[in-house]
Design a protein that fits this description.
105 residues; Beta Polymerase, domain 2; 42% helix; globular
């Protein structure tokens, strides 16, 4: 996990708990050598607690708060949307590169 995430880990965990996140993963350029600290966005994959009914507003709120926390653009996808994606190349690339940044106790 790189320093930008580590430096905000407490706030990130609080955000996840507040929004009933079961697990949050980082993927994309932030997990590779081509990440540009000044310009790259952050890509996250989220899993909510099973009892949570996920709404667009909830996803929008989490994405906005992550963007504010890390002071950069954030793209947020749900794990279920990726697992159900017909684009198997993208699905495999994301699922194989994702790194956990939060897991509920």
């Amino acid at each position: 996990m790189f320093s930008l995430i580590k430096s905000k880990l407490d706030a990130l965990h609080a955000l996840c708990k507040r929004h009933h996140v079961r697990a949050l993963y980082l993927f994309g350029s932030a997990t590779r050598d081509d990440f540009e600290p000044e310009t790259s966005d952050l890509d996250f994959l989220v899993e909510f607690q099973p009892e949570v009914r996920v709404t667009f507003r909830m996803l929008d709120d989490v994405e906005r708060e992550l963007s504010e926390l890390f002071e950069r653009k954030v793209d947020l996808l749900t794990r279920s949307s990726i697992e159900q994606s017909p684009n198997f190349i993208r699905r495999r690339a994301i699922l194989e590169s994702m790194e956990p940044v939060y897991r509920a106790a």
